[in-house]
Task: inverse folding
C-alpha cells in the first residue's frame, strides 16, 4: 500500500491520547483540510442500568439532556448551536450514551461548553418532559407500523431472551408512560459522570489544544457516587428454530430477519466472521444473498446480511423486504444460502475479493472527520491498539478459507435460528 | 472557479475536473439529462428502471462482474434518478479510478438489456415501490404531488405507477436508453487526487470515440396557475395523522430562488442542520400543537413545490396546527425579516459548505448536479447570492409564493389503532 495512503490512517504518532485526573479520556487528531472540527464520544450510562417497568428510561434521559439545563432553556441551547451552523446530539444504546457534533473550528469552545453543560447539569423542565413524552410515544406509534422495525424488535426479543440486548432501548408505550421526572433526575444523578467518558476530537486544531479545551470545560467534573453499570448476564444459546410473525394489517410489503448469535468485537473470530459475512451478504450487490434473492429471483429491492459485534454477544443476521406472498420463497432461498455457507464456506476467489475490498475501502472510510472519529473510538472501545489500521492489511490477509468455514460452522446452525417477520 | 477545468469533447460530452489532493481518493460522476419529467403516460418510472438496467452488464463487463470489480478495489458506487436527471458514481482509491471510467464509457451505449434481466428487475422495482407504499408519508406525498401537477410531467413519482411498472416492455426500456444515453446528453464530473492533464487525456481516449446522438427534446408542458386551494385526504393504516402542504415554487435559476432559501432557513431551519429554533418549530412544536414540523424545497429545472410536513399530536386537532403554520407565513408576509436573522442564515450556509468540503464525493457531486439545472457558478456564488438578500426581498417572496389559493393541502387519516 502506498505511503501516502497509510499516512492518512490513524497511528500512535498522530493520535494524541490523554486521561484527565477525573477519568475522562481525550483522543485528538488534526485535519486541516477544512476549517471545521468534529467531536464524538460516549459514557457508560446506557439502558443496561434500567429496570423492566421503566424501559426507555436511559433513552428518555438522553433525549432530555439538551432540552434545558440549569442555566439555559431548550431554545437557548439550540439557538447558540444553530446560529453558528453547529450541531450536537446524543443517543443511547444498551451500554453507552453516545454523542457527536461538529462546528466551524472557531466555535469548538461553544460546542464543548454545551456538551459539558448538557451532560453535567440538565434541568429536566417539566413542560419539556411532557412534550418529549408525546414525541417519544408518537415515535413508538410509528415504530408499530414499520415492518422493518417490528421484524428487528421481534428478532432481538427472541434471540436475546431474558437479556438486556433483547429489550428495545426506546421502550414500550406503557413503560414510557410510567417514567416520571424523578426517575429521569435520579438516573442522571447515579449514572452520568466523568468516569468512563471518552471524547474524540478531529479537525482543524492541534491535538494538544483540543485536549486543553476539553480539560478547561470538563476537567473539574467529579461525581463521587457515579454507579458502575451492571455486568452483562450470560446468554443462553438457541436450542431450536424459532419462527415468529408480527401482524401489521394494510401493509404492501413484509420484512424478514433471520439469524443467530455472532461473535463479540474483541473475539479472535471477528475478522474471519466479518470477511465471511461480506461474501454471504455484502460484497458487490449484497453478496450471495443479494444475488439469490434480488438479482436472480427478483424478489426484493433489498436483501443482505450483517454482522453486529459489540461488547457482548453479537448477532449475525440476514434481512430483506419482500411482497407478503413471496415471504416463504425468500426464506427458502436464504436458508439454502446459509446451509451452503456453513457446509462449504467461501471459495478462494470470494475470500480474496472481500479481503481486497476490506483493505481498499479504508481511505474512503477514513476520509471525513466523522469517519476518523468512529475509527478512533472503536479502537479505544475494543482495545484494538492505536496502530490497528497500520496493521489492518496483514490482519485481513491472514484469514484463510478454513478460518471462515470454521466460524461459519461455529456460529450458524441452520436448525437453530430465529426467523422474525412483520407484515400483513 | 479556481482549479476547475471544464471541457467539451468533440462529441458534445461535457467534462468537469477538480483536483483535490487531501486524500488518495477520486470520485467520478456521470450525469444524463433524463429523469421522471421525461416520461409520458404509460411510461412512468422508465428512467429509474433504466438506471437499474445499467447495473445488469455489458458484453465487456457482464452483470455480476461490474459490482465485484468495483468492490474488489475498495470502491463505492451507486446511481440515482431524480425528476430532472440520472446520475451514476464511483468513488475509488485514486490508483483504481480507471476501472470506473472504462465502465462508464462502456455502459453509456453497450448495456445489454437482456430480456431475462428485464423480467427479474421488473419485480425488484415493483418491490421497491411496495416498500415505499408501506410508508404513510410516501402515500401522502405522492397524492399531493399528483394533485399539484395536472399538466407538467412532475405529476408522477420517480418510481412510477404500478400499472406502468407491470406493462413497460424490454423494448420500451431499450428505446429510452438509446434515446437519452448519448455523449452530448451527458456530463462527467471528476474530483480528487489526479493530475488534470493526464486525467483529461484518458477521458478523451475512452469517451471521444462514442458517436454523438440525437436525443428527443425534453417534455415541456408548463403547469397552469392554480385558482383555489385544493384539499385531499389519504386513508391508511396507523394511528398517527400527518399533513402535507404544497405551494408552487420557482426553478433553481429564478432570481427569487435565493431570497426563498433565506425564507426557508427562517421558517424551517438551514438544510443539513437541526431546526429547533426556526420559526415553525417554535410556533408549532414548542407550543405543543404538533409533534414535528419541517419544510423543504428542491432545485429543479422547471417550477416545482415547496412542501411543509406536519406530524400531528393525537390530542390536538390538525386544523389548529395548520392555523399556526399559516400565522407564521402571514408574519413573513406582513413585515420584512430582521437583518440579524438573514445574517444567521448566511452563517449557517457557510458552515454547511465547510463541512461538505471534507468530502471528495460531495465535491464531484456538486459540479455535475448544478450543471443539470444551471452551471457550477450556481454553487460557487451561492453564499454571495445569499448574502445579498435583503429583508424586503424575503417579505416580497413570502407574499408572492405562499398564497393559500394556490396550494394543495393533503391530510393522512389513519385508520385507527393497529393491533
Result:
Amino acid at each position: 500500500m502506498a505511503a501516502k495512503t497509510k499516512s492518512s490512517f490513524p497511528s500512535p504518532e498522530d493520535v494524541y491520547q490523554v486521561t484527565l485526573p477525573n477519568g475522562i479520556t481525550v483522543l485528538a487528531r488534526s485535519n486541516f483540510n477544512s476549517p471545521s472540527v468534529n467531536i464524538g464520544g460516549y459514557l457508560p450510562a446506557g439502558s443496561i442500568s434500567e429496570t423492566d417497568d421503566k424501559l426507555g428510561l436511559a433513552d428518555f434521559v438522553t433525549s432530555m439532556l439538551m432540552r434545558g439545563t440549569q442555566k439555559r432553556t431548550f431554545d437557548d441551547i439550540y439557538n447558540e448551536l444553530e446560529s453558528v451552523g453547529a450541531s450536537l446530539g446524543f443517543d443511547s444504546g444498551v451500554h453507552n450514551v453516545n454523542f457527536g457534533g461538529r462546528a466551524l473550528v472557531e466555535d469548538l469552545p461553544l460546542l464543548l461548553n454545551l456538551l459539558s453543560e448538557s451532560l453535567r447539569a440538565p434541568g429536566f423542565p417539566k413542560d419539556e418532559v411532557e412534550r418529549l413524552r408525546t414525541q417519544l410515544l408518537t415515535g413508538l406509534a410509528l415504530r408499530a407500523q414499520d415492518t422493518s422495525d417490528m421484524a428487528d424488535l421481534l428478532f432481538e426479543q427472541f434471540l436475546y431472551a431474558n437479556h438486556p440486548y433483547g429489550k428495545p432501548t426506546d421502550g414500550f408505550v406503557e413503560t414510557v408512560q410510567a417514567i416520571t421526572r424523578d426517575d429521569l433526575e435520579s438516573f442522571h444523578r447515579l449514572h452520568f459522570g466523568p468516569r468512563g467518558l471518552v471524547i474524540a476530537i478531529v479537525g482543524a486544531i492541534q491535538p494538544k489544544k483540543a485536549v486543553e479545551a476539553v480539560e478547561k470545560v470538563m476537567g473539574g467534573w467529579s461525581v463521587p457516587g457515579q454507579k458502575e453499570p451492571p455486568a452483562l448476564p450470560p446468554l443462553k444459546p438457541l436450542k431450536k428454530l424459532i419462527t415468529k410473525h408480527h401482524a401489521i394489517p394494510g401493509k404492501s410489503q413484509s420484512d424478514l430477519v433471520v439469524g443467530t448469535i455472532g461473535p463479540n468485537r474483541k473475539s479472535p473470530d471477528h475478522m474471519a466472521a466479518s470477511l465471511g459475512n461480506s461474501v454471504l451478504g455484502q460484497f458487490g450487490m449484497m453478496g450471495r444473498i443479494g444475488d439469490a434473492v434480488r438479482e436472480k429471483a427478483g424478489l426484493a429491492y433489498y436483501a443482505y446480511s450483517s454482522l453486529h459485534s459489540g461488547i457482548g454477544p453479537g448477532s449475525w443476521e440476514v434481512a430483506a423486504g419482500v411482497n407478503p406472498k413471496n415471504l416463504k420463497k425468500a426464506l427458502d432461498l436464504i436458508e439454502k444460502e446459509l446451509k451452503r455457507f456453513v457446509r462449504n464456506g467461501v471459495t478462494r476467489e470470494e475470500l480474496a475479493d472481500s479481503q481486497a475490498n476490506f483493505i481498499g475501502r479504508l481511505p474512503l472510510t477514513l476520509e471525513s472527520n466523522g469517519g476518523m472519529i468512529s475509527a478512533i473510538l472503536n479502537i479505544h472501545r475494543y482495545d484494538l491498539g492505536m496502530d490497528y489500521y497500520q496493521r489492518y492489511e496483514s490482519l485481513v490477509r491472514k484469514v484463510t478459507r478454513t478460518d471462515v468455514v470454521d466460524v461459519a460452522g461455529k456460529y450458524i446452525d441452520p436448525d437453530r435460528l430465529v426467523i422474525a417477520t412483520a407484515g400483513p | 472557479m479556481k482549479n476547475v477545468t471544464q471541457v467539451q469533447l468533440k462529441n458534445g460530452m461535457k467534462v468537469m475536473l477538480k483536483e483535490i489532493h487531501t486524500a488518495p481518493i477520486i470520485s467520478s460522476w456521470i450525469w444524463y439529462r433524463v429523469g421522471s419529467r421525461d416520461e409520458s403516460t404509460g411510461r412512468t418510472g422508465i428512467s429509474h428502471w433504466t438506471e437499474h438496467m445499467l447495473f445488469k452488464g455489458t458484453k465487456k463487463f457482464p452483470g455480476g462482474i461490474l459490482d465485484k470489480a468495483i468492490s474488489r478495489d475498495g470502491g463505492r458506487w451507486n446511481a440515482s434518478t431524480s425528476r430532472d436527471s440520472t446520475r451514476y458514481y464511483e468513488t475509488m482509491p485514486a490508483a483504481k479510478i480507471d476501472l470506473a471510467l472504462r465502465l462508464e464509457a462502456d455502459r453509456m451505449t453497450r448495456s445489454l438489456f437482456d430480456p431475462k434481466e428485464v423480467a427479474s428487475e421488473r419485480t425488484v422495482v415493483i418491490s421497491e415501490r411496495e416498500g415505499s407504499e408501506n410508508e404513510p408519508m410516501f402515500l401522502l406525498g405522492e397524492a399531493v404531488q399528483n394533485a399539484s401537477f395536472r399538466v407538467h410531467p412532475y405529476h408522477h413519482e420517480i418510481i412510477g405507477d404500478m400499472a406502468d411498472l407491470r406493462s413497460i416492455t424490454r423494448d420500451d426500456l431499450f428505446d429510452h436508453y438509446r434515446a437519452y444515453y448519448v455523449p452530448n446528453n451527458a456530463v462527467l464530473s471528476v474530483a480528487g487526487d489526479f493530475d488534470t492533464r493526464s486525467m483529461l487525456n484518458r477521458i478523451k481516449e475512452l469517451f471521444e470515440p462514442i458517436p454523438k446522438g440525437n436525443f428527443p427534446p425534453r417534455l415541456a408542458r408548463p403547469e397552469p396557475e392554480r385558482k383555489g386551494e385544493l384539499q385531499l385526504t389519504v386513508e391508511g393504516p396507523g394511528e398517527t395523522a400527518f399533513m402535507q402542504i404544497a405551494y408552487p415554487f420557482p426553478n433553481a435559476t429564478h432570481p427569487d430562488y435565493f431570497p426563498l432559501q433565506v425564507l426557508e432557513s427562517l421558517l424551517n431551519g438551514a438544510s443539513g442542520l437541526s431546526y429547533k429554533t426556526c420559526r415553525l418549530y417554535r410556533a408549532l412544536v414548542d407550543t405543543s400543537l404538533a409533534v414535528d414540523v419541517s419544510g423543504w424545497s428542491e432545485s429543479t429545472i422547471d417550477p416545482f413545490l415547496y412542501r411543509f410536513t406536519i406530524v400531528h399530536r393525537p390530542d390536538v386537532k390538525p386544523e389548529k396546527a395548520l392555523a399556526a403554520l399559516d400565522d407564521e407565513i402571514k408574519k413573513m408576509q406582513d413585515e420584512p425579516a430582521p437583518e440579524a436573522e438573514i445574517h444567521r442564515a448566511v452563517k449557517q450556509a457557510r458552515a454547511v459548505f465547510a463541512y461538505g468540503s471534507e468530502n471528495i464525493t460531495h465535491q464531484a457531486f456538486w459540479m455535475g448536479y448544478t450543471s443539470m439545472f444551471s452551471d457550477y457558478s450556481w454553487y460557487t456564488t451561492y453564499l454571495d447570492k445569499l448574502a445579498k438578500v435583503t429583508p424586503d426581498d424575503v417579505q416580497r417572496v413570502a407574499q408572492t409564493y405562499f398564497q393559500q389559493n394556490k396550494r394543495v393541502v393533503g391530510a393522512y387519516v389513519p385508520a385507527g389503532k393497529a393491533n
